[in-house]
């Protein structure tokens, strides 16, 4: 399909050559281009459709890439990528060796900062802004003049509910800076946002006439030398108090922090956004432009079902019919979690569910639908989710706290200080462990076993099958202290053999064969190991032992003794980093006991893993059935 405008935009300089009247047409073309591309190459649709107008306006008004835009969350930035020289490569978005799923400075000078997770924009953007100011001051002291880059943070999709965002906001109000914050308010994350700040934004109204009046009075006072930058904060406080008295409105939280507030503005009127940005871009001091947008804007199916169309998979762009995946005999791991949690909660009234803005993503919405008063969606606030769970446990309830593996990293101190130190009975269900695929390095769950294992009082489990997950969740009900159960994204494996009984801290022998090589695996990657072992035996006749460890902590030392006493070579396999995980635990124990068996560790080396399909990445890492087969054959 040919486009009149965007096919000729290869940089923001090209965009600036257009008259402002052409920008609505640019937005329409971007919207159609994104819909067409994502219909066959799935990605994050709804958020990017909702952020098109503000993207165009920002690049039209500001001098990017010299001026810097920090995106938060990153999946609202597809239009940004298309306008900044990546249109012809956009068909490779999220694909192996293709464009990254989120903004990253490694890919483009237009990407000021990485944006895989949420709520980091204000802190990062403030750092960039202050650095620019300091470097400009240094140049001026040396007799040179240096233009200070203007920095913009675009925060949306519920990211303002994260604690880090509030920390950045607080610091922004304290330090001398000229940061511009675009608050892209669509009342959504993946699911509808919950919490008091969201309701505050709904209630917040500010008269555009009042803002204009206040700015004109301020400018007049400056010209008359009645006030200066030093007295500005006192004047702003006076205006805020006066407005509260005259309009009976609540104190504006931003203005209460001495951050100039503009809006709310229509986030889909690109010409008006250009006008507003031109008016406020040179205002000194930190400022917020609050825009109201609709997730999925311009595509009716995405507007009508925003949760599903956050990342809908393949679909027909004409009628919005989503492509159905092939029939499967097995459920998703998250569905097993959700159904099991509801079943347990029906029997045990102390069980409650906690999720940081992922009720549908982790399938806690299954319990939420039937027992809504016992499920707590705390917003994009992983640290709070953990400490809130600690309080629930201390108060006598049994919290099952579900957080994605890579998101759990943000709550590490909370796990240690607020849960493990007191030995509280909190069950952490860690979804998306291991390789998660196309979302890439910011989302892979490769560190959880390594960062959880050193924590005292922590129990760590990893199921190989759906039945294992159910059994571990039920056993977790009886454990005195914190427990983490980590499992991957995707469908549970088809496992037709009889599942052996589950016991805390005990692994199981899946295949006791020969005396040369034994494989110790943990978690779902054990299925790839199982296939590789069967292939080795079929093709070479070699006998290989296989043991599913099930529990990383406490590790089954009796099983290790048994294996070390029988097999010459031990292969450990895990879908996490090698350093600190299963292989390390086995080696540490064997070294302490004086064993001299050869140990070969398979897992993730000291690297961040890029994006691509799960199959492609496991193959690249040598952790698919083929890779494991080759390693065993060469032993």
How does this model look, in words?
- The protein is of the alpha/beta class and 635 residues long.
- Helix content is 40%, strand content 14%.
- It contains 25 helices and 17 strands.
- The strands form three sheets. It has a seven-stranded mixed beta sheet, with helices on both faces.
- Helix 12 (270-280) links the parallel strand 4 and strand 5.
- Helix 14 (333-347) runs parallel beside helix 20 (466-476).
- The longest helix is centred in the first third of the chain and has 21 residues, at 121-141.
- It is globular.
- The two termini are 54 Å apart.
- Residues 244-248 have low confidence and may be disordered.
**Uncertain stretches of 5 or more adjacent residues:** 244-248
**Rounded average pLDDT:** 89
Shape: globular
Query: What structural class is derived from the secondary structure elements?
Result: alpha/beta
Cα-atom Rg, whole angstroms?
27 Å
Helix content: 40-55%
Numbering strands along the chain, what is their spatial order in the largest sheet?
7-6-8-9-11-10-15
Beta-strand share of residues? 5-15%
Number of strands: 17
Oligomer: single chain
Instruction: Describe the sheet with the most strands.
Output: 7 strands, mixed
Q: Helix count, per DSSP?
A: 25
Distance between the termini: 54 Å
Which secondary structure elements does this structure contain, and how are they paired or packed?
Elements: H1 12-16, H2 23-40, H3 46-50, H4 52-61, E1 68-72, H5 78-86, H6 121-141, E2 151-156, H7 163-174, E3 180-185, H8 196-203, H9 208-223, H10 232-247, H11 253-256, E4 260-266, H12 270-280, E5 287-292, H13 300-304, H14 333-347, E6 351-355, H15 365-370, E7 375-377, H16 382-394, E8 398-404, H17 405-408, H18 412-420, E9 427-431, H19 448-452, E10 459-461, H20 466-476, E11 483-486, E12 508-511, E13 517-521, H21 526-540, E14 544-548, E15 551-553, H22 557-566, E16 569-577, H23 582-593, E17 598-604, H24 614-620, H25 625-633
Parallel strand pairs: 1-2, 2-3, 3-5, 4-5, 6-7, 6-8, 8-9, 9-11, 10-11, 13-14, 13-16, 16-17
Antiparallel strand pairs: 10-15, 12-14
């Amino acid at each position: 399909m040919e486009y009149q405008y965007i096919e000729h935009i290869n940089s923001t300089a090209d965009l600036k050559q257009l008259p402002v009247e052409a920008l609505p047409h640019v937005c329409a073309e971007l919207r159609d281009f994104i819909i067409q591309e994502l219909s066959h190459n799935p990605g994050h649709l709804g958020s990017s459709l909702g952020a098109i107008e503000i993207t165009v306006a920002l690049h039209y008004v500001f001098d990017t890439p010299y001026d810097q835009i920090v995106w938060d969350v990153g999946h609202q930035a597809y239009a940004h990528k298309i306008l900044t020289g990546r249109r012809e490569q956009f068909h490779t978005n999220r694909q192996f060796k293709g464009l990254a799923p989120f903004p990253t400075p490694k890919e483009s000078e237009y990407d000021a900062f990485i944006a895989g997770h949420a709520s980091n924009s204000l802190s990062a953007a403030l750092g960039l802004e202050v650095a620019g100011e300091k470097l400009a001051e240094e140049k001026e002291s040396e007799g040179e003049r240096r233009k200070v880059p203007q920095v913009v943070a675009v925060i949306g999709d519920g990211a303002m509910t994260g604690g880090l965002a509030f920390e950045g906001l607080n610091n922004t109000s304290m330090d001398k800076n000229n940061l511009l914050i675009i608050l892209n308010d669509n009342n959504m994350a993946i699911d509808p946002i919950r919490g008091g700040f969201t309701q505050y934004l709904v209630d917040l109204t500010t008269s555009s006439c009042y803002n204009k009046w206040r700015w004109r009075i301020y400018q007049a006072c400056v010209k008359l030398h009645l006030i200066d930058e030093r007295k500005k904060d006192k004047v702003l406080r006076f205006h805020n108090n006066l407005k509260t008295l005259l309009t009976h409105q609540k104190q504006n939280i931003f203005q209460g922090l001495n951050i100039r507030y503009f809006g709310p503005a229509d986030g889909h009127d690109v010409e008006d956004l250009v006008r507003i940005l031109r008016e406020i871009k040179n205002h000194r001091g930190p400022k917020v432009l609050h825009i109201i947008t609709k997730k999925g804007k311009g595509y009716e199916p995405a507007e009508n079902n925003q949760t599903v169309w956050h990342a809908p998979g393949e679909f027909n762009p004409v009628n919005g019919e989503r492509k159905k995946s092939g029939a499967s005999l097995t459920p998703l791991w998250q569905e097993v979690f959700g159904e099991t949690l509801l079943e347990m909660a029906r029997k045990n009234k102390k069980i409650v569910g906690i999720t940081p803005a992922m009720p549908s993503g982790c399938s806690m919405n299954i319990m939420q639908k039937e027992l809504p008063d016992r499920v707590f969606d705390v917003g994009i606030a992983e640290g709070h989710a953990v400490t809130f769970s600690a309080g629930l446990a201390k108060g006598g309830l049994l919290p099952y706290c579900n957080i994605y593996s890579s998101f759990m990293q943000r709550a590490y101190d909370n796990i240690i200080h607020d849960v493990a130190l007191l030995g509280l009975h909190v069950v952490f269900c860690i979804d998306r462990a291991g390789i998660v695929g196309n979302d890439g390095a910011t989302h892979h769950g490769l560190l959880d076993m390594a960062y959880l294992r050193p924590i005292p009082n922590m129990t760590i489990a990893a199921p190989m099958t759906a039945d294992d997950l159910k059994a571990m969740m039920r056993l977790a009900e009886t454990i005195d202290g914190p427990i983490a159960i980590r499992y991957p994204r995707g469908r549970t494996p088809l496992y037709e053999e009889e599942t052996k009984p589950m016991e805390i801290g005990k692994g199981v022998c899946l295949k006791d064969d020969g005396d040369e090589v034994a494989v110790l695996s943990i978690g779902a990657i054990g299925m790839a190991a199982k296939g590789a072992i069967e292939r080795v035996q079929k093709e070479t006749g070699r006998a290989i032992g296989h043991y599913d460890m099930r529990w990383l902590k406490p590790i089954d030392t009796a099983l290790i003794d048994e294996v070390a006493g029988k097999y010459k070579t031990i292969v450990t396999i895990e879908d996490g980093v090698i350093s600190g995980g299963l292989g390390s635990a086995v080696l540490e124990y064997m070294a302490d006991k004086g064993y001299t068996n050869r140990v070969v560790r398979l897992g993730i080396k000291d690297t961040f893993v890029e994006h691509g399909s799960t199959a492609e990445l496991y193959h690249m890492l040598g952790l698919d059935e083929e890779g494991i087969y080759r390693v065993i054959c060469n032993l």
